[in-house]
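Thread title: Can someone regenerate the structure for this chain?

I was given the following input by a collaborator and told the matching structure tokens would be attached. They weren't. Posting the sequence so someone can regenerate them.
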Amino acid sequence: MQSDRSFQTDRIQRDRVTPDAQRKIASWTKWEANATEPFEIHYDRAVSFCVMEGRAKIAFTDGTSLDVQKDDFVTIKPDIKGVWTVIEPITNLYMYHDTGAPA
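Best answer:
Regenerated them for you:
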């Protein structure tokens, strides 16, 4: 998968969701946020999510900054912390890798 949204480090990967992945993630858990204040998160497990609507920025403690928007598919490896800043109310479908097969 390669697109103008491609981004990868050793801990974080972002690309455009493929039609095949869209079918696979339809049953994933929905998460919504319209927070007006930034909030911290600790990814203690590997997780993948797809942005269905909205936009946000995630500033990770390792110095990486990642913007996410509709149709982005993101995978984050465990043991990294970050701060989410919601720019437009956001809806994601997500799955922790230890609870199901990634798309």
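DSSP finds one helix and eight strands in the chain.
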